[in-house]
Amino acid sequence: MASSSRSARGGASDSSSGAAPADKTCRSCGRRIEWRKKWERNWDEVVYCSDACRRQKVSAADRELEAGIRSLLASRAATATICPSDVARAVTSDETEWRALMEPVRRAARRMVAAGEVEITQGGSVVDPSTAKGPIRIRRKR
Question: Exposed end of the chain (fewer CB within 10 Å): N or C?
Fold first, then answer.
């Protein structure tokens, strides 16, 4: 079988050592950062997955959403899960504004997964937060 220049996880392999660079997580959105050739010389300095995440960073409002997730999980049974919409509704008093908070809540949940605080599930199974599409649930790490 011919050797490939792609690693098993789909990224390019590190040609100097033969091993793929260590996975990283974006500080802003919590998604996995895929290694790119253009980052070869400064891979250790890369902390954001995109220019949009670099501009947005993590705000006080984002930290409030993380606190909202922690608070809701603490108020439920140890095995309970919460929906991101529960968090969005809990942090805003306006019934129409919660929808705009759905993606920021998902971003907060992904950051918390990277920190080892929570897990994201779909259909009761833990999923990769970087690739999860559709409805998700958030639960305490087991």
Answer: N
